[in-house]
Amino acid sequence: MVIPFRRVERAAAPWVRTRLRSAPGAALAFALLVAVTACLAAAFPRALERYEDAGLRRSVEQVPHFRSVVGLSAPATLPDLPRDQREQALRPATVKRQYDSILGTVRRPFVPDPGQSSYGVTTSVNQAVLEPWLPRPSGLPARVALVAQAGLADHARLSEGRLPRASGTVTATTPEVEAAVSAETAKSLRIKVGSVLHVPGAGRDALAIRVTGIIAPRDRDGAYWATDTLLRTPALMRVSPTDPDSPRYWLGALLLPSEAAPALLGIEGLPYRYWRLAPDTNTLHHRDLGALKSALAALESGPDLQQVRTAVDPLTDAQTDLDDVLASYSRLHSGVSAPISVAAFGSGTVAAIVLAMAGGLTAERRRTELALLRARGASLPGLAARLLAETAVVAVPAGALGLAVAVWVLPGTRALPAVLAALAVTVVACAALPLRAAAAHRFVRIPALRQDVTSVRPSRRRTVAELTLVAVAAGAVVTLRRQGTSGGSGDQLISAAPVLVGVIAALLLVRLYPLPLRGMAGPAGRLRGVVSHLSLARAGRSSASAVLPLLALLTALTTASFGGSVLAGIAEARDHSALLAVGADARLESMADSLPAGLTDRVRRVSGVRDVAAVSVAYRAKPNDGRQEVPLVGVDPGGYAELTRRTGLGAFSEGVLKKGRGGLGTGAVLPAVASPGVADAHGSAPFPVSMEDGSSVTVRIVLVRDVTPAVMSADFLVVDRAGLGATAARPTTLLVTGPEAHGRALRKAAGDAVSVRLRADERARYVDSPLQSGVEHLYTAAVAAGAGYAVLALLLSLLRAAPERIALLARLRTMGLTRPQGRRLLVLESLPQAVLAAAGGVLTGWAAIRLLSPGMDLTAVALPPSVAPLERTPLHTDAWSLTVPALAVVALTVGIAGVQAWWAGRRGAVRELRAGDTK
């Protein structure tokens, strides 16, 4: 009889299934941990990518269209060509064919928006029209631009008349063409349906343009109309733009049908063809930023432009400011990448440690079982393989579930980063238990060996490994300190800085902290009662594997401290910038004239207003009767000095503007507070200042300050308002103190003639990019996740010691220990480790912030590119961010120890002291 051979591997499946059924609660908890961690890990890159894409699109959308559009242009034709060829070059079919050729040349990821892109023919020289009924503000005739842009019917809504059309074949000698104007142009230039305008001809009679319709844009702010706003909105121009007294004239646009473009060859307008490619913002992605810059460079001055010139015209030119917009976004992204990488790396490290601790807890729970298997001949690879299979059965589906949830919640981004993140979590979760068990059971040992530092002395190999790790971490920290945080390897060191500092602190503290506790145990033994001595003695016998929990706590506390300091620094920068822009909690100002009488009293009665400082600001005062204008601020010394002290903007005392004044009569010298530039220019000697109303005062600079609340200018003079003339002393600005003051009530009290600016509104305006707000949200979420994993690490650490503690209390109760004494014992035993973690967390957080602060500027996160800060916004320590998480760790540890003691008191001692107990 032949006995069939059976594979040994078939026994693995029943063994795995049996082990999972023996502890379903632990398996379910482990699956939940892996699923949540995989979901968070997969969601982070997807959320970051969504914020990056939204930030890029917002950067392109918020600039004027003439900056984001790629414009290509070419002259009409060479003047020596036959007239019919020149006319043919401007006809719609030719320009449309060239537009299609340009679209075929453009390379991805730059994708033009066909609905907002435009092309056509227009004049490069605006033409004067002499019709007497057109408005002439300074006696100068109005000018018009003639534009034959394709797609007018699709982008305009008819208000009056009909759309223009071409009768027959239009040539350079056609005497009359039709046109339409926008409603705004018609209103400003007094154009009506049927109006005829005559444009001077070139070698021919004037070209008559009959207005047949008045239109309104369908999408007023779209690129079709807003790239050249003259199409929809006329402009009141000056002959000399830099001279405010220069004569003015009206400039508008006449919209011709595209078939009438050849008529522009008969005037002096120098027509040219143009093609404007508006980017499709829905196709913009941060991951394509480098390729997008390359595509723009190729189209603007590279090989793509050469192809366009070959297909369209050798004189075709291209220009755009979109590359500058992308460069501005790149600077913003580089400014926010460092803080978010710190949070991601710190929280990810804590999560990895918790997964490793979960595997260690399982290995510790099954230490006797695994040691028995080793004693009965189980091989180390076979044992690790069985544990890996057992873990993978739970971790792989849980990781896949977490990935699926992240993809479902955050759609529309790349899947590969999320898959890699979830895969990394799954691999760590699967490998934690087999590796921990293999390390603990390399040799066959007696199962009941104690595992604290009194019995398991660190080996030389472990000592060398720890010293090597400390040396590498310290070297990286020193390198970061020397090189700074700008680019290259500095970016990776920034991300790892809290973990590196935590590694150094954890290894040193675990080695050092039992020594003072053991030294304190001797004196405590001479005290009455056994609780203090026993708790210190047990705390001094720390677990030999206490590095991971301590490292998790230190990393989480450091990340939380760092994150809290970052968020506090961002809020402080925005508050300070808003205060600089407004000067107080609210600002009421009249630029044209003095404030209405009684306004100060009405504002004081508004709910929430604490104080009001009335000032007069002469923005065009001229020191020494020169040409340089310096804002001169007249204030009430008492109230204004209090405002400067409260805001911290150029604080000075009330007596500064009063001392040495010598009365307020004619010729009195007024003490003044000045900016550094004005002080350097005029010194400390008295000098005259000519006011806007024709009066003059003499001032002497007695104090120099960099800023003052009343004006945002870099140069200023501040004097006592009582020393000014009656007209110059009239208040023009009210600076209101009161964060609770209601903006609507202030605007109602001010009326329509006075502008009202709130500090809160100004601060809210600074968050203008989804990337900025997204980084704040992600940072807060990462810090919260790190804190949650730190709490979980603390729970796992205490759960690991829970059986031994409960058994100890059971034995001590048989010796007369009361329940209150048992609670104090567990609390006092846990307190040193909690205090150690809290103190270490404060120190590591402080060290990481001090380490990174010289090279980290929070300006890009706090303020939009349009706001120019007076100085950089460095990272600095925040006391609340350092102390609150540390105190929370101590409170949580004490609370868990108290709950353990309460639970042990509910359970009977017989179960813990049954026969064969090896605890």
Plain-language structure description:
- This protein is α+β, with helices and mostly antiparallel strands and 919 residues long.
- It folds into three domains: 24-48 and 330-572 and 769-912, no CATH class; 69-99 and 110-282, no CATH class; 591-753, no CATH class.
- The strands form three sheets. Strands 1, 2, 3, 4, 9, 10, 11 and 12 form an eight-stranded mixed beta sheet that branches.
- It is flat and about 120 Å long.
- The two termini are 52 Å apart.
Largest sheet: 8 strands, mixed
Which word captures the global form? flat
Q: Compute the number of helices.
A: 29
The proportion of residues in beta strands is: 5-15%
pLDDT averaged over residues: 79
Low-confidence sequence ranges? 5-13, 485-490, 660-664, 915-919
Approximately how much helix is present in the residues?
A: 40-55%
Number of domains: 3
What integer value in Å does the Rg equal? 39 Å
**Classification by helices and strands:** alpha+beta
Total count of strands:
21
What gap, in angstroms, lies between the N and C termini? 52 Å
Summarize the structure.
The protein is built from 29 helices and 21 strands. It is of the alpha+beta class and 919 residues long. A hairpin with a 6-residue loop joins strand 14 and strand 15.
Tag the structure with descriptive keywords.
3 domains, alpha+beta, 52% helix, 21 strands, 919 residues, eight-stranded mixed β-sheet, 29 helices, flat, six-stranded mixed barrel
